[in-house]
From TrEMBL:
The chain crosses the membrane at residues 6-31. It comes from the Bacteria. Residues 54-108 form the HTH cro/C1-type domain. It comes from Blautia hominis. Keywords: DNA-binding, Membrane, Transmembrane, Transmembrane helix. This is HTH cro/C1-type domain-containing protein. Pfam families: HTH_3. CDD domains: HTH_XRE. SUPFAM superfamilies: lambda repressor-like DNA-binding domains (SSF47413). The lineage of its organism: Bacteria, Bacillati, Bacillota, Clostridia, Lachnospirales.
Length: 113
């Protein structure tokens, strides 16, 4: 009888402790996931796409897609694709857009997702 009790203590207590540890890890992981999800949703709500930033700056400067395209040497369709998010401008075109809008490339990219 005493031997069974010792076996239960030797095997049962560490097994129970391991179970408690795993439950604590699971709870911690779930809390981290919930918090990070809230942060991601908040960031998405405050940020805009690159296309939206390009369009907002174009409209702020009262420029047409055609004017922007002719000025930086691309087609109007390219500007339209950038604004719709179908494609992204190359680095050199991004720099040209920022210069045309009178802002730095960093400002153009500042609130982009």
């Amino acid at each position: 009888m005493q031997t069974n009790f010792i076996i239960v203590l030797v095997i049962g207590i560490p097994l129970f402790a391991a179970f408690i540890y795993l439950v604590a890890l699971l709870i911690r992981a779930l809390l981290k996931y919930i918090r990070s999800k809230d942060v991601r949703e908040e960031k998405q709500a405050t940020k805009v796409s690159l296309g939206e930033a390009i369009k907002a700056n174009r409209l702020r400067c009262q420029m047409t897609q055609e004017f922007v395209a002719e000025t930086i040497g691309v087609s109007r369709q390219a500007v339209s694709k950038w604004e719709s998010g179908a494609s992204d401008p190359s680095t050199s075109n991004l720099i040209a857009l920022a210069k045309l809008f009178g802002i730095s490339p960093e400002e153009l990219l500042h609130d982009v997702k």
